[in-house]
Amino acid sequence: MTKYDLFRRRIAPIAFALAIAFISYDTCQKHERTSATIVLDYGAAERDVRAVEAEVWVNGEQVTQFRRSANIGKTQFKASLPAQHGDGELRIDVELTSGEHRIVKRAIHVTEGATVTIQLERDLR
Questions:
Q1: In this model, does residue 30 exceed pLDDT 70?
Q2: Is the dihedral of CA 119, 123, 124, 125 positive or negative?
Q3: Domain span at residue 102?
Q4: Which SS3 state, helix, strand or coil, does residue 108 take?
Q5: What is the pLDDT of residues 36-61, one digit of tens each?
Q6: Residue partners of 84: CB distance under 8 A and separation at least 6
């Protein structure tokens, strides 16, 4: 039996079964998650932003992470939180063109399908 035959007859079916199990698990767990879109609005300070990192924390546990370092412009990302906890904390680290980092923390409340806009212009000046 060649390596290809071993893969085709033994390993591929197992990998396929695991993929199907993961997809079904993920589908079943969606009702226990709340998804929303987080929009970071830099206002007039947008031209001074070089990079941004954002994390959503719930009950001391990081649940979502986002990074962007080029072509900042309009920044938005999807966040998924445990359904029973629609409240969390958004921690944002903004690197300015001067090399300075600004750390911003905001409490957020997320409902299913919501768009949460965070105004950062005042914090970046």
A1: no
A2: positive
A3: 34-124
A4: strand
A5: 888 988 888 888 888 999 998 888 88
A6: 32
Q: What is the CATH number of the domain that holds 68?
A: 2.60.40.1120
Of 84 and 118, more confident: 118
User: 0.70 cut: is pTM over it?
Assistant: no
Phi-psi region of 55 (alpha: psi -120 to 50; beta: other; left: phi over 0): beta
Q: Do residues 76 and 35 touch, judged by C-beta distance below 8 A?
A: no
Measured CA to CA, the distance from residue 68 to residue 64 in angstroms comes to 14
Domain total for the chain? Answer: 1
d(CA 88, CA 91): 10
Q: Using CA atoms, how far apart are residues 63 and 45, in angstroms rounded to an integer?
A: 28
Work out the average pLDDT over 9-17: 80
N- to C-terminal Cα separation, the chain = 68
Average pLDDT, the chain: 82
